[in-house]
Amino acid sequence: MKKLINTPESVLPDALAGFAAAHPELTVDLDARVISRSARPAVPKVALVSGGGSGHEPLHAGFVGPGMLDAACPGEVFTSPVPDQVLAAAQAVHSGAGVLFVVKNYTGDVMNFRLAAELAAEEGIEVATVLVDDDVAVEDSTWTAGRRGTGATVAVEKLAGALAERGAPLAEVAALGARVNAASRSFAIALGPATTPAAGKPGFELPDDEIEVGVGIHGEPGRRREPLRPAHLLVAEVVDTILADHHLAAGDEVIALVNGMGATPLLELYVVFGEVHARLAERGIRIARNLVGNYVTSLDMAGFSLTLTRADPQVLELWDAPVATPALRWS
Amino acid sequence: MKKLINTPESVLPDALAGFAAAHPELTVDLDARVISRSARPAVPKVALVSGGGSGHEPLHAGFVGPGMLDAACPGEVFTSPVPDQVLAAAQAVHSGAGVLFVVKNYTGDVMNFRLAAELAAEEGIEVATVLVDDDVAVEDSTWTAGRRGTGATVAVEKLAGALAERGAPLAEVAALGARVNAASRSFAIALGPATTPAAGKPGFELPDDEIEVGVGIHGEPGRRREPLRPAHLLVAEVVDTILADHHLAAGDEVIALVNGMGATPLLELYVVFGEVHARLAERGIRIARNLVGNYVTSLDMAGFSLTLTRADPQVLELWDAPVATPALRWS
């Protein structure tokens, strides 16, 4: 295993210390392991809190800031944050208008965020939860009851964050988050495995000419293994798999995320985006907004995921709203 | 070789088509292979043009936009753009105030940009050139007479771009670019090689426990191979190597770029940044601004580079000026 770390045990605290030094505009509580905005809102607003295992950076800490999350709580690599940690995040940022938990659908995350919501309720903090389960690859998995949460998390956090910024009430922000999740589908392909610092060896093995179709963000098995093929054929399969599950028709618009899993060159992600664009155009579906890059990674996994979120005027308007976070920034 | 491509021959046109689809705010000439801003300036301004081999994305196309480059011309992977291509870029964006070429110091780039400058001069386009040669690892290399140009390119393009935006004359913008390059030093470490689509196999081989110290952005050999060590020891060597060559003293401020080479997780880059921050703090040097992420990559190479640019009030003020490009964006 070759990694730029000090010890496998210290990866998270060391990375958090580096994150704190790199982003002095944010508050990083190294003991509680909570990243939050430094400024409390002048007027109470719904606070967005997300979190999950580390190793998916920039998710979630990279999305803390005006227009998106209020706080993030990273667990150890590929491990859920603990309930007290999630509670600490909620306590750090609630301002009287309630807290929305954005939770990727993995058994540990769901359980620990639920426990944290109960603890928060005991303290009089109102909590609502949006569950993200956009990955069409598998219905259940080793880590999940139901579908896994992946790339749609970015859209949910961006859009619900923009709505919260405008002072919308908790129920409305939660409903928008659920609507965005329901309007999103993802599918991923791995060309190579990730290696966690703790394991020290690749999470799975792939022959030189095979890919894992439908891989999860922790390297969980997908649907099957197939031979590597030219990008346009791979993309056709990914797009068609999503469309088979998604209610998209000619004339529809989408937000498209072509996401690198961590070790795939941006040059290749642009090749993929070009093929996605062409394939959707054949179906009469227009990409209204897009992101191409590393947003929901899996350490050093090679491959990509595609997320399509159906757009409508409200979705596009919230997408275009200003955001100022380490990983997503526009005005 | 596992890559998300159609054919090795079509990587660049396919990626450019994808880039064009992803960034409709920019103009992509697929025939000339030039990416440029779509809007001509209302008042003539110095136009910044850069380029080089592909495989280093987001460099350079990802830095085209208000506040930074006016145009970029990507060559084939790890191959210089041809003179006619550079000329086409200059023609596309010059507005009467001259053109500044930002050229990384590689023999092919230097030659082809020089030829393009001569062709432009014949058309009455005034050209000045800033040569970037910030890599302290080697004095000459297989690809270079003199030091190689690497991470400082980002600072030169950002800062000179900001000055050009304000209407400064060509000589002044060129002088600022040269000053930023002279104030910058870089050093890189590879944990693993890159594979170009054309070669189809890794550019070099490293034993499981060794790193290439001082590697170049095309995988050129560095100073030596050493055992992999904990991040704080690696970073100490990188920082000390740069400081041995750089006129930095206690009380100085720097812009620090911790740059991923393409396949290194962001989690690890934050570990590295934390160690850089701590090591510099011991020397009384303060990081005033920073970037942590993939900015000057080498396809799927694992590793990182560190670039330190000495800051002063003008440098910081230009750094903070608005920029709106695919890869660098703030206001």
From TrEMBL, chains A, B:
PROSITE patterns: DHAK
Organism: Kitasatospora cinereorecta
GO MF term list: phosphoenolpyruvate-glycerone phosphotransferase activity
Enzyme class of the recorded protein, top EC level: transferase
Domain of life per record: Bacteria
Entry protein name: Dihydroxyacetone kinase subunit DhaK
Gene3D superfamilies linked to this entry: Dihydroxyacetone kinase, domain 1, Dihydroxyacetone kinase, domain 2
Keyword Kinase in annotation: yes
Annotated ranges, domain DhaK: 7-330
EC number: 2.7.1.121
Pfam families on file: Dak1
Keyword Kinase included in the entry's annotation: yes
Keywords: Kinase, Transferase
